[in-house]
Automatic annotation (TrEMBL):
The keyword Isomerase applies. Keywords: Isomerase, Pyruvate. It comes from the Bacteria. Residues 33-168 form the Mycothiol-dependent maleylpyruvate isomerase metal-binding domain. This is Maleylpyruvate isomerase family mycothiol-dependent enzyme. It holds the Pfam family MDMPI_N. Signal peptide: none annotated. Transmembrane segments: none annotated.
Amino acid sequence: MTTTSSPPARVDVTQYAGKDTLIRLIRQEYKQAFDMLVAASEQEWHAQTPCDMWEVRDMAGHLLDAAYCYLGYFKQGEYGWPTEEPRGMRAYGEGLGKSALEYRDVYRWEVLGRLDACTELLFSYFDRLTEDEWAGRLVPHKWVGPVPAFMMAAFQLMDYSVHNWDLRKALGKEAFVDLEASDTLVPFMFGLMQICFAPELAEGLDLTVDVQISTTDDEHWTVRIADGALTFAPGAPERADASFTFPCHEFCLDVYQRLQGGQASGDQAAIDNFRKLFFTI
């Protein structure tokens, strides 16, 4: 299926009023992932995914590993136990890549049973978050450090939305990212862009970039590269060195470096320099 219709108006899921929307989308995306994993033939279980280190079976291992870790993070925060220094996103890709491979030694149907059990328990944690806890409770995260509780749910939506695209590609299905999910994730994609920014590649650069996302609001965002840092804000810049226009679902895949999406215009050197400023996770 190709998602071509317009999504409903975006709900701000960083606010408690958006909790039900975010949890509904996570459950939707999880069910689609789980159903594909269950339905995969034994040959498809070993099919290569767009993630270099992973076959389909490793995608199941990763999703289980992530849910298991998140359950631990919630308990760690609940008890007020010490946390390690954040390991940073540069180590994230290889670290999670290797963790997923450890489940190759576990029987397929046990992996899926564990995945379903851990995920339902994790979703119950999200369900129980109160209005004060949604943005006010900090939950440890070994890669990025403590984050508001709603970010744990947002991370899950990122994971399932993009990995569902990976699974569809690996299984020979029409690959897409759900339109409402990808639209909801647009503001978070700029945060991901920021934490995957490689400052050593931006030495001497001073760029202003206009990123236009084709949604119901046809929105613009300004991204600035200056003094070895990346900042972003909603709204179009007065002047841009480069401009990029994306459908919202393609923007998510571009930020995750699954493909080079969108249409670029402006100074070609600025376009090329901006494209090279991010490491892969």
